[in-house]
Amino acid sequence: MKEVLKKLEGKRVSILVGIPSYNNAETISHVAKTASEGIVKYFNGDGLIVNSDGDSSDGTREVFMSTETDVEKYSFVYEGIPGKGSAIKAIFEVAKIVDADAVVLLDADLRSVQPWWVERLAKPILDGKASYVAPHYLRHKYDGTITNNVCYPLTSALYGKKIRQPIGGDFGISGELVSIYLSKPESVWKSDVARFGIDIWMTTIAVNESKNGVVQASLGAKIHDVKDPGKHLGPMFVQVVSTLFSLMSEYQDRWMRVKEMLEIEVYGEQPSQNVEPIVVDLENLKKKAMEGVRNYREFLRSYIDEEILDDVLDDGMVNADEWVKLVYDSAAAFRKFGKKVVEAMIPLYFSRVAGFVEETKDMDSEEAENVIEKQLERFFDMKGYLAKKWLE
Q1: Scanning 106, 115, 321, 329, which has the fewest C-beta atoms within 10 Å of its C-beta?
Q2: What is the pLDDT confidence band of residue 46, given thresholds at 50, 70 and 90?
Q3: What is the rounded distance in angstroms from the CA atom of residue 345 to the CA atom of residue 241?
Q4: Pairing status of strand 73-77 against strand 102-105
């Protein structure tokens, strides 16, 4: 990486597209080619593409570098704790060297990325309308379960800005905000922020510290390597939610004062597209919820309502009201017990996803979205409960 930084000294670009990767040889060429087309079409080629790789074993970097593009590109293996956050920190360091006006981050496993994504994620920043552009996707009702049940409602209720995809993966970031991120203590980059905690960390700081605030960008359907929540999302859940809870302490004075939720501007029209269906193994979710609560019951009962735990043990599901209480009780308990609280939340999260799947199985995406919005309202309505628990 130092070699790349040395080569780029003295170079200046308007747009830097960063692609963090790990074993994405099958998809990274498409992402690189599309990023190049976007920079050429919308920004007169005034850009750079960098691939920050986690030492892939499948030839990801070689595929990236052999892809024909009209925009200069570089690939390197980042330094630090293995994880997406470390990859992004390295991209920010490159952005600082080339004094980029806007950084566009694109996931390396994207199959649906289009050249206009680059314009949508960068233009509000270049126009001075935003410091941070969050994605606004069309998604299947069972895609993004950590987003729908934790990150979207909790972040929106806490900080008063309705950002639909706060951990979406594809973002636009101003040079000013890059400097803010890089100014944070080195200890931050050795925490879960170095892994999957990075997206919620970036979004929360953008909401609370950036000069021009946040805009969302319509990006249509996001087609990528999706995961069944009951089988693949446990470690990611711990890293994301631990980061979110830690930031609640940091910005306590801010969220305690927030008394309303504001809609956030969405840039660009959402295209009419179909989303890929996602099959969730409902019985597996219920089973894992019940097993996990049995395992953690003694610990959970020290801060969670016994009746709610009984409901999970009964059928493996919780409703929205029970879930909001669980999240707020867990957030308060995190201050005392730390990460063990989030590990104990995993089966409870499975129980909420199971409850949501059961409730929405006969609904279309629009009807299911209304259920998510009503749950968000409960998060906001119960902020007084959170504040009381938090201060206790």
Answers
A1: 321
A2: very high
A3: 9
A4: unpaired
Question: Please, which residues have CB within 8 angstroms of residue 388's CB and are 6 or more apart in sequence?
Answer: none
- Residue 203 near residue 163 (C-beta atoms within 8 A): yes
| Ranges assigned E (strand) in 22-166 | 47-53, 73-77, 102-105, 132-138, 161-162
Q: Could you tell me if 239 and 336 are in contact, meaning their C-beta atoms sit under 8 angstroms apart?
A: no
Q: 137: which strand partners?
A: 220
Residue 26, class by beta-carbon neighbours within 10 Å (0-12 exposed, 13-18 middle, 19+ buried)? middle
The alpha-helical segments, DSSP class H, found in 258-338 are: 282-300, 306-315, 320-337
* Exposed / middle / buried, residue 302 (Cβ in 10 Å: 0-12, 13-18, 19+): exposed
Q: Report the range of poorest mean pLDDT among 70-79, 145-154, 230-239, 316-325.
A: 230-239
- Return the bridge partners of 221, or none: 138
Two structure tokens written together for 61: 């970097």
The residue behind tokens 């269906």 is 277
**Measured distance CA(118)–CA(293) in Å, rounded:** 44
DSSP state of 147: I
Residue 149: CA atoms inside 13 Å, Cβ hemisphere, count?
29
From CA 195, how far away is CA 309, in angstroms rounded?
Answer: 30
| 316 and 287 Cβ atoms separated by less than 8 Å | yes
Report whether 18 contacts 95 (CB < 8 A). yes
The domains found in the chain, sorted by start residue, are 2-267 (3.90.550.10), 282-391 (no CATH)
29 closest CA partner among 60, 56, 1: 60
- Give CA–CA dist 11/21, Å, rounded: 24
E strands within 163-213?
171-174
Secondary structure letter of residue 211 according to DSSP: S
Answer whether residue 225 shows pLDDT above 70. no
CB contact at 8 A, 244 and 334: no
C-alpha span between 142 and 163 (Å, rounded): 18
Is the pLDDT assigned to residue 224 strictly greater than 80?
no
Q: Hey, what amino acid is at 249?
A: S
**pLDDT tens string 349-373:** 999 999 999 999 999 989 999 999 9
